[in-house]
């Protein structure tokens, strides 16, 4: 006869059953090693936790914290599950890190705001400056994840890892991708090679930089990609593998007041100047053009943008195209018009950088262009 004993209950089996007379005949083969197990003392849970990296998990809501709703197929409510519930739902996290969890917001990321950005940045900077955490993981909706990641990458002054993670399926869905994504986000956050890499996004076994990453698909779990820069690395069967060296970023002061108004104007056929004129009338401090091709637009729109730049409004040319760079002085004479070329930054990220530059008093076109070139 043979007995199979699960490893998790092995110690309990000996300590509780070893002396039971009814089991003596079945345990004969194990008696010789019993004293060693009986004398061995378990490691203190407190000591184990103290030896692990400390990770602060900040929850903001999103699909990863969503619960199903019966209003339609696949319908769900974002941000319905709290931070501690998220942590508790992922098996094995306690073996990776000593985790603490806090709720910063409970929203769908389409409602992400400057105020929440400031709360996140302030809490993270405090946690690092006061030695509360070795790394931070942020759960976040995917719709504006790239903007939050990029914002934080510009204002956080630290070499400690910050990892954003989300999911494309709510927690209550079949095949929910959230738990695996959270586990891998913590893996990346505590990996020694993550130091000095700034803010990252981890989803679907990929590690992407805050500058490079963007949402590329409305429903696919492979939505977060880096079309222009490529991924930073991968989480491969439990191993964190970086394929790029760490890159230097730039630091801009976190403004106390609300961020300045910067509008994104989407270019299209038969475009006139009305959208640009409305932005000027609304006292926009900056305008980002989501242009055609390499950041071009109609003659009427370009003329209006030149007027805006002449009035001191920061004008940045980006592109509505999903891949490619917008370079200076190709189809458009940026130097003459006072425009900035966004380079690899898409319109939404170009807007974030423009907001922070204006808030930091950087409005001269040459200085703004230098900031867009930073690291590239």
Automatic annotation (TrEMBL):
One Pfam family, short name: Asparaginase
Ranges for domain Asparaginase/glutaminase C-terminal: 261-372
L-asparaginase N-terminal domain ranges (all copies): 54-245
Claim: Ion transport is one of the keywords in the record: no
Record keywords: Hydrolase
Disulfide bond keyword on record: no
Active site: residue positions: 63, 142
Family: Belongs to the asparaginase 1 family.
NCBIfam families per UniProt: asnASE_II
Name of protein: Asparaginase
Species annotation: Pseudomonas boreofloridensis
């Amino acid at each position: 006869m043979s007995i199979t004993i699960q490893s998790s209950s092995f110690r309990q089996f000996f300590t509780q059953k070893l002396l039971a007379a009814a089991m003596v005949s079945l345990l004969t083969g194990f008696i010789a090693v019993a004293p060693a197990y009986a004398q061995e003392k378990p490691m203190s849970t407190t000591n184990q936790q103290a030896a692990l990296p400390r990770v602060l998990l900040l929850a903001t809501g999103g699909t990863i914290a969503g619960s199903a709703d019966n209003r339609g197929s696949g319908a769900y409510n974002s941000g319905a599950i709290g931070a501690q519930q998220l942590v508790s739902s992922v098996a094995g996290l306690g073996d990776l890190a000593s985790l603490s969890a806090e709720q910063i917001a409970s929203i769908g990321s389409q409602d992400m705001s400057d105020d929440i950005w400031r709360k996140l940045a302030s809490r993270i900077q405090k946690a690092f400056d006061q030695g509360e955490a070795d790394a931070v993981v942020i759960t976040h909706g995917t719709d504006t994840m790239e903007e939050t990641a990029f914002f934080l990458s510009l204002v956080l002054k630290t070499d400690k890892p910050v990892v954003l993670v989300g999911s494309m399926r709510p927690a209550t869905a079949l095949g929910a991708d959230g738990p695996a994504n959270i586990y891998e986000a913590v893996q990346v956050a505590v990996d020694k090679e993550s130091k000095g890499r700034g803010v990252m996004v981890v989803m679907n076994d990929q590690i992407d930089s805050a500058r490079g990453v963007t949402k590329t698909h409305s429903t696919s779990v492979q939505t977060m990609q880096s079309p222009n820069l490529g991924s930073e690395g991968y989480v491969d069967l439990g191993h964190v593998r970086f394929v790029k060296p760490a890159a230097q970023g730039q630091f801009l002061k976190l403004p106390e007041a609300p961020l300045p108004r910067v509008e994104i104007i989407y270019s299209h056929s038969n475009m006139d100047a009305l959208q640009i004129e409305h932005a000027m009338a609304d006292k926009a401090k900056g305008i980002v053009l989501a242009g055609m091709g390499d950041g071009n637009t109609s003659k009427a729109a370009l003329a209006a943008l030149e007027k805006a730049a002449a009035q001191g409004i920061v004008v940045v040319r980006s592109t509505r195209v999903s891949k490619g760079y917008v370079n200076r002085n190709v189809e458009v004479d940026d130097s003459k018009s006072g425009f900035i070329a966004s380079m690899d930054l898409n319109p939404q990220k170009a807007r974030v950088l423009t907001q922070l530059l204006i808030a930091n008093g950087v409005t001269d076109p040459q200085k703004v262009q230098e900031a867009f070139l930073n690291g590239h």
